[in-house]
Each structure stands twice: as C-alpha cells, then as structure tokens.
Amino acid sequence: MRRIRLSFANTQVEFVDREKALGQVRDWAEKGTFPVQVVYGPEGCGKTAWLLQSVELLKELGFDVIYINIPNKEVLAEFSITDLRSRFLTLAREAIAQNALGKLAWLAFDMAKELIKLTRGKIAVIVDDAFQVIGVKESALYVKALLNLIEYPPEMYERIITIAATSEGVSRREIGRHTWAEIMPIWNMPREGFRQLYEQVPGDKPGFEEVWRLTGGNPRILEELYRAGWNTDRVIEGFIRGRGIDILINSLSGSEKRVLAETVDDPDALFTREGVPLMDKLIELNLVLDISDRKPYLWIDEPPPEKDPELGIGRRVAWQTPLHREAIRRALEGVRP
User: Fold this and answer.
1) Which phi and psi angles does 153 have, rounded to 5°?
2) What is the residue extent of each domain of the chain?
3) DSSP characters for 240-297?
4) CATH number of the domain at 5-185, please?
5) Confidence (pTM)
C-alpha cells in the first residue's frame, strides 16, 4: 500500500503507524460495514490522517470512494465514472463557495446513491468531522440515512463501507441513543508510532520524552508546539482562551470547582454522582473523554493504557491530552474554593 504524505509542521511527512486501524479497514473491505461505523476520539489524535490513508487503501482494494472533510473543505472523489465525478466536484465547489458546508454531507450521501445505481459495486463513503457543522439532531438523522444506504439501497451492490468520524462528544451521545451505528473510539497515537512522527518534525526540538509527556501522543498538539516555538505556555494560554475555560470555571459552584480540582490529579473523579454533570460540560468543550471499556475489539487501533496519571488517563475518564489538563490546572489557580 502506498503511504500518503501529509502537510505537517512546515514539511511533508509520511503517514506512519496505525497498522491495526488499517487492518480493521481491510476487514471492513472484505465484509462491508453494518451498521454505520462512527469513530470518535480526541481532537487532533490522527483520525483524518488515518481516514485519508484508508482512502488510499480502499482504492487499491477496488472501491469507489467518496471522502469529505467539512471543516477543512476537502473533498475526494475516487471513482471512475467521469461524468458523475465531475458533477460531484462541481456541486461540492459550489457549496464551499457559498459556505453551505452542511450541504457537503448530504451531497456525499446523494452521490453514493448514484454510484450504487450505476456500478452496483464496492463503494465507500467516509465523512470526516461533519457533526459539529450540521448539529446534534441532524447528525443522528444523517447516520440513519447512511444506514439506509446499507439496508435499503436503490440497487443491489457488492459491498459498502460507511464511516463517520468525529471529535464532538455531544453528537456521539445522541447517536448512541439509537441502534443505527457502532460507535468505536480511537485514541492518540501509541508511543512508538508517535516517535516516528516526532522524528520527521524538522529543526531543533525538545527530547522525545518531554514531548511525549506534553502531548500524550496527539499529533495536533505536537504541531501546535512546533508552531509556537516549543513555548508550552503559549499553547496552554491558547487553550484557555479558545475553549473559554476561564468562563466555564467562573460559572461553576464551589463544589463543582472542588471536583474539577480533583480531576487534575484523577480524571475518574468525574465518574461520580457529583462529577457526571461536570463531565458533560468538559466533554462538550472537548477537554475529556469517557473511555470506560478497554476491550481491543471495541477500539479503532490500540486503546489507551489502563491508567496513566502522568498523561491524565484514568480507568473511566481521560483528559484528551496532558496540555488540556494543564490548561484547567492553570485556570483554576487563584479561584479554587
């Protein structure tokens, strides 16, 4: 399989690692997916890179592939019916030009139906980070529509794969209320795979162990640190401002602030009667994930370790990265009850 190259830290890096995750895509290619596969994980954990490499893999396995990434305004039409491909790309460019980004998701769905009618072959629809654009309720309806492609296609087909990826926790919970999707988490990169990415980052940089402790294996945090000249304070302050963490803390009661202070050392403090309402708020801000079950078959790629206090990983709850936790720690300074 050809390894794709990606723009990263002012250079081009080769896709590395995620061998187990790519193996899962190969399994889907043999059997198809049922129901829809909804993949969620920390922001910047490498979902998009894995999905783009999966596009390459599925092409080699004979699939016609539709891929959209709405936040990045990226569309791929890897299928051979020239007229349909041209129409799809024209409509996608028009939607992007009009800033009607929510239409891209439904355009991908409509094109998949057309492909089924015309080819009756092997088709993959990959929708990357659409939920935060189309909203909670429509996200659930969209997943149901993808399921209908599998169950009630316009024509019989050889095989179909439907994948929707998100880092947005609220939509995932709404979708989980139904039986339309298999919801599978993906975590930050494992240590050795992350080392391969770290080694491709140009210029002088801190030692690997220090970078690992700061990022927890999250590629986006690695790139943000690089762009900030390895200034950790700058990245943390960006989190506080960008996520409105100081606003969140000022809105909390005294007891909630005490629970939040406990989570800095032990994120499992959120998995209590007093902590669950606060956990919902932190999930909505993409600061923590609930990661209750480590059974390998429930995960895309490798699950996180059972517990790692240094990286902010508990048995039931984890900070998305160590710097997310550090942003909370810093914002709490001076306001703890």
Assistant:
1) -70, 160
2) 5-185, 191-332
3) HHHHTHHHHHHHS-HHHHHHHHHHHH-GGGGSSTTTHHHHHHHHHTTSEEE-----GG
4) 3.40.50
5) 0.94
